[in-house]
Write a structure and sequence with these properties.
Elements (H helix, E strand, L loop, with lengths): L2 E4 L9 H9 L8 E5 L11 H9 L4 E5 L6 H4 L4 E4 L2 E7 L2 E4 L3 E5 L2 E6 L24 H13 L6 E4 L12 H8 L3 H12 L4 E4 L6 E2 L4 E3 L4 E3 L3
Parallel strand pairs: 1-2, 2-3, 3-6, 8-9, 9-10, 10-12
Antiparallel strand pairs: 1-13, 4-5, 5-6, 7-8, 11-12
């Protein structure tokens, strides 16, 4: 089993990378995972749901995702909560699984902490309940659950996967200029807390629509698809 990580897919707008990736590695099976760092977007509208998900179902690997800010949280949260590899999930399809906020998963000997959500910088141009949902922002209850789950692992995990990032990540090029443009939001402060208390090998996130290794521990992803640990 192999595990890879990539950036936002936005329903069907940025899924071409997944098909190209699958073509490059023909040995991939449903026992392999590609984790999307938020803005999955496949659970967006009831009337098109099955067609939207078909794109991901037709891939040869299993898709895991943390939520971003561009998700239909009403529809996403309508799925039953179940436990999978030690953490809470929404199983959208057997091969499409939402990794919920504040969870620690154990996959192939790796511990992976997940914390989705972020602020939509374009929400002024969206309609609440149709193209924007207030649940995009992590709650204090989700933060408390995350702290409790991390404590069970003595605040030490192998990998962190989020949609946005902590404040320090915004200080590194190439993200620095993008960070100045977008500014700081509550989730940046919240994620900085995890950076302070958690020991980890590598942190992956999306949201900023760029690819780059910021330092020896932080990677921002969009079109890139990298093996977990690189």
């Amino acid at each position: 089993m192999a595990i890879y990580v990539t950036g936002d897919t936005h329903r069907n707008l940025d899924t071409l990378k997944l098909g190209l990736f699958a073509d490059k590695i023909p040995q991939l099976t449903k026992d392999d995972y590609v984790i999307i760092c938020g803005d999955f977007g496949g659970v967006w509208a009831e009337r098109t749901l099955e067609d939207d998900l078909k794109i991901f179902e037709n891939l040869p690997f299993t898709v895991l995702f943390v939520d971003g800010n561009h998700e239909n949280f009403w529809l996403l949260n309508s799925y039953p909560v179940t436990e999978w590899h030690g953490g809470k999930v929404h199983i959208i399809k057997p091969d499409i699984i939402h990794l919920m906020r504040g969870q620690v998963f154990e996959l192939e000997g790796n511990t992976i902490f997940t914390f989705g959500g972020a602020t939509s910088v374009d929400k002024a141009f969206r309609v609440e309940g149709e193209s924007w949902w207030a649940k995009e922002m992590p709650s204090h209850e989700e933060l408390d659950e995350a702290i409790a789950n991390l404590k069970r692992y003595n605040n030490k995990v192998d990998y962190i996967i989020t949609h946005s990032c902590g404040e320090r990540a915004l200080m590194y090029p190439p993200l620095r200029d993008r960070g100045r443009k977008f500014g700081l939001y509550p989730e940046n402060h919240m994620l900085s807390y995890f950076e302070d208390i958690v020991k980890y090998k590598r942190w992956y996130f999306g949201h900023y629509h760029m690819d780059g290794r910021l330092n020896e521990k932080m990677t921002v992803l969009y079109n890139g698809i990298v093996p977990l640990g690189e």
